[in-house]
Amino acid sequence: QHYFIQSNLSDRRSTMFNICKPKKDDSLRKASDDKAANGDKEKAKGGDKAKDGDKAKDGDKEKAKGTMAADKKPDPYYDLIMDEDLAKNEWPKAFDAIHKAETQSIMAQVMTKEMFEKMKDIKSERGWTIARAINTGVTNPTSFTGCHAGDLDSYHTFKDFFFPVVEKYHVGYNTKTDKHVTDMDVKKIETVLEKHAEKKIISTRIRCARNLSFFPLNTLGTKEGRVEIADLMEKVFATFPAELQGTFYRHSTMTEDEIKHWVDKHFLFRGKDLMQAASGYHADWPHGRGIFVSKDEGFLMWLNEGDHLRIIAMNQDGDIPTTFARLGKAAKAVEDGIKQVTGKDDVFARDDVLGMITCCPTNLGTGMRGSVHILIPKLIKKIGFEEIDRIARTMQCQARGSSGEHSEVVDRVDISNWRRLGFPEYELVHDMVKCVNAISKMEDECE
Asked: Which of 94, 122, 338, 374 has a CA-to-CA distance to 139 between 20 and 30 Å?
């Protein structure tokens, strides 16, 4: 059993969803004494009965509406649904089974009952709780990470929980001694994409996540806040240099033709993610969401998909250096534009140890994911997708279906960098290029 939580969290608290029963209509008109006194008593009664009948019908309609509202079930793909125990701020009984499972999320590996009891009454600066943080992993025990943050302060308020999670994902990173670095200089990419690999690449995308420092993360966001971010960014788009200029499309106002067009091009995000929804990502969908597309379609931005901003550079080929250079230019234009419009000096949520702050601990640091779609039909047939992914992970990368994580694999895969934190952006691109070269060579060696 789960509890459905209202999406409006402006008071920094998760409140139980209350279903309001329709009020009984006790204002039915009585018979008119004046008309009765004038000899129209029977007529008046008849008229009153008709009016009463109309009122009763109206009452039935309202009651039906109320019943429909009461019967409407929350959608787990969009609505925030809390585990029954977590909604009461109690240790989830679900952990009995979760902790016995052979495979556990990183959250489950770190979280203990003692830790929960110690943290359960604490709130971060903007009101995030440990119950909200782990809800996604409790309600979706097959998730890989199993937790999300609500603001920058979450990572420090619940440091004893989040820092071990960070170190388990970002293997080798020491949160006590290491500092994150950033460098998007394309000239520092030393590994060259080999010709045999470049020929197999269908497209290249490199993106980075950014969150505004003066808003809570989207897990704690409100409808009004998301719309405000969209309104702000619409002004920022107008500051872009000519080569990055384009059009902003809001999910709430797009036409069916526009939706189909961008879906067919794989540019449009659609929400509908169980694990994100369980942390409040998709509340008030589709308000405040949108995409910005440059005129040449080489630069794209997603607004309030997960993090506030996803800055995306892409090419329909294997020209990785050009794509990475465009990303650096776009990221700078976005930051400069926000500073210009808001008059603020520091506009992104960032931390010396954790780098760029993101909702999911896996994206901390650079917040960057560089990927290519590569055709390797013979290798897929010979060793299978799971083995390709295992090999990629030995090279600090991962493999996904070409339509995203968990999508079907036929003749191509998505290869991307795995690491995010503790390494400059150019080195993560270096990881991807090395892996793609190796995977391409394996394809050529297939009989």
From this structure: 122
- Which residues have a Cβ under 8 Å from the Cβ of 364 and sit 6 or more positions away? 166, 170, 180, 354, 355, 356, 357, 358, 420, 421
Percent of the chain with pLDDT over 70: 82
Strands 246-250 and 290-294: antiparallel
User: Which pLDDT does position 447 carry in this prediction?
Assistant: 67
| pLDDT tens readout for residues 363-374 | 999 999 999 999
Sequence-distant (≥ 6) Cβ neighbours of residue 327 within 8 angstroms: 184, 206, 207, 208, 311, 312, 313
Report in angstroms the alpha-carbon separations of 190 from 36, 187, 208, 429, 432: 99, 8, 21, 10, 12
pLDDT at 21 over 60: no
pLDDT of residue 55: 45
- Looking at 238-384, list the stretches that DSSP marks H as alpha helix, in order from N- to C-terminal side: 256-264, 274-277, 320-342, 377-383
Half-sphere exposure of 325 (CA within 13 A, CB side): 8
Cis peptide bond prior to 76, omega within 30° of 0:
no
How far is residue 94's CA from residue 134's CA, in Å, rounded to a whole number? 12
Q: What are phi and psi of 155, to 5 degrees?
A: -65, -30
**Span 263-274, average pLDDT:** 90
Please tell me the distance from the alpha carbon of residue 180 to that of residue 206, in angstroms, as a whole number: 20
C-alpha to C-alpha distance for 359 and 336, rounded to whole angstroms: 23
Q: What is the DSSP letter of 73?
A: P
Residue 128 exposure: Cα atoms within 13 Å on the Cβ side: 30
Distance CA(416)–CA(397), nearest Å, equals 5
Give me the chain's average pLDDT, please: 86
> Are the C-beta atoms of 435 and 397 separated by less than 8 Å?
yes
Burial category of 138 from C-beta neighbours within 10 Å (exposed 0-12, middle 13-18, buried 19 and up): buried
Q: Are 359 and 416 in contact (CB under 8 A)?
A: no
pLDDT at 409: 76
Dist. CA 115–CA 158, nearest whole Å: 10
pLDDT at 70 over 70: no
**Helix, strand, or coil here: 238?**
coil
Q: What is the mean pLDDT of residues 317-323?
A: 95
Beta pairing partners, 313? 206, 299
